[in-house]
Design goal:
5 helices, 22% helix, 3-stranded antiparallel beta sheet, NUDIX_hydrolase_dom, alpha+beta, globular, 12 strands
Length: 296
């Protein structure tokens, strides 16, 4: 049976066009096929990889546009924000592409199987010594650099720099729809599978990361340990979701852009919507966009 699944997956890979830009590189595609054919993980992880390779997110605004890139910065290149929503629900999806092109970033949603067989995702707590977003929870990731061949390269490179995760241990399977942060940073969530968690020994970069921990992915579809903060802008109400989690007598708060991405990732992985209402804001995009622009 497992042999049949492997043949089916290899056939699927050869015929699919995967959204994530990692497959634009022949070397990257070859790496993914090799990793699938030699994966040591469970049958469930193998099936999950097959499922996620079939996922196709809605088209992103301005992907093929050719215009000058605005230099939009956020938090020294790290992807942390109080707000973050799927790009399709923001005004960016409807405006002319010549208006602006947000700076691109990628985060790694690294999934593995827990001791009880549940899917878990690796997160970080930012150093309390940082001048911005200190002590906040984030996914490993950051802004794309010139040498990055793809979003997957950006996400896995940043994960190695931040927490010592060797990219060769991560099987990148797909990317989700871009998210737009409050500061107009286009964030691409990259989903990767860590088949053997025991091979990963976290080595946090102390200048950026205070701790590395993991949480059950399904948590982001449940009402348990969740609360919300209703906010209002020009008469339009929207919700900010906050998730409380405790591990090894340490308490973590996951919210903002990170929570939004993980809610979407959990919905895709488990193929069902969250048990709570997702209420998105109606943003207003200013006519002039520069490095100081913030959606309001």
């Amino acid at each position: 049976m497992l042999s049949s699944m492997r043949r089916l997956l290899m056939s699927s890979i050869s015929s699919l066009t995967i959204y994530c830009s990692s497959v634009q590189s022949p070397n990257s595609l070859r790496k993914l096929i090799i990793m699938d054919s030699s994966a040591k993980g469970s049958q469930r992880l193998f099936a999950l990889a097959q499922q996620l390779r079939l996922y196709k997110p809605p088209p992103s605004f301005g992907e093929d546009a050719d215009f000058e890139e605005q230099k939009l910065e956020e938090s020294a290149g790290k992807v942390v924000s109080q707000l973050g929503f799927q790009e399709s629900v923001t005004p960016v999806a409807a405006v002319q592409p010549e208006r602006f092109k947000p700076k691109r970033a990628a985060v790694l949603i690294c999934l593995f199987e827990g001791d009880s067989g549940e899917l878990r995702v690796i997160l970080t707590k930012r150093s309390s010594k940082l001048s911005t977003h200190s002590g906040e929870v984030a996914l490993p990731g950051g802004k794309a650099e010139e040498g990055d061949a793809s979003d997957a390269d950006t996400a896995t490179r940043e994960a190695k720099e931040e927490i010592g995760l060797d990219p060769s241990l991560v099987n990148v399977v797909t990317c989700l729809e871009p998210f737009l942060s409050k500061h107009l940073l286009r964030v691409i969530p990259v989903i990767g599978i860590l088949s053997n968690k025991k091979e990963f020994n976290p080595t946090p970069n102390v200048s950026e990361v205070e701790s590395v921990f993991d949480v059950p992915l399904e948590m982001f579809l449940k009402d348990e340990n969740r609360r919300s903060d209703e906010r209002e802008w020009m008469g339009e109400k929207y919700l900010i979701h906050l998730f409380d989690y405790e591990m090894d007598n340490k308490k973590y708060l996951i919210w903002g852009l990170t929570a939004g991405i993980l809610i979407r990732a959990a919905s895709v992985v488990y193929q069902r919507p969250p048990a709570f209402l997702e209420q998105n804001p109606i943003f207003k995009l200013p006519k002039v966009v520069d490095k100081n622009t913030i959606m309001s």
